[in-house]
Design goal:
CCD48; single chain; EFCC1 protein; mainly alpha; elongated; coiled coil
Length: 113
Amino acid sequence: ELQKKVEETEVLKMELQMLETERVRLSLVEEKLMDVLQLLQQLRDLNISKRALGKILLSTLESCRDPQPGKAQLLEVLDTLQQELTACELLHKQPMEQAQSPRSLSNPLVISC
């Protein structure tokens, strides 16, 4: 009976280790997703066109078509999307344009969800 308890303890330890690993992975995904959402929000605030945003998304999906071995596909897509959004020219032009013209970027015809 003692041997049975030891085996159960080992199984529980392995399950706990797997849960901890999954928690860390989910934490990384959550962090990456928050970064991507912040970039999307910045682009939305700059009134990026739906067409430009669609091109970024399609480019991301195209580059992630064949998943790399050993890397989680979700994290790979989020990484690539973050890189594509970060490379967006509009984000890099923003500070200069704001310094030159402090006009409001809001459009009364745009309906916000």
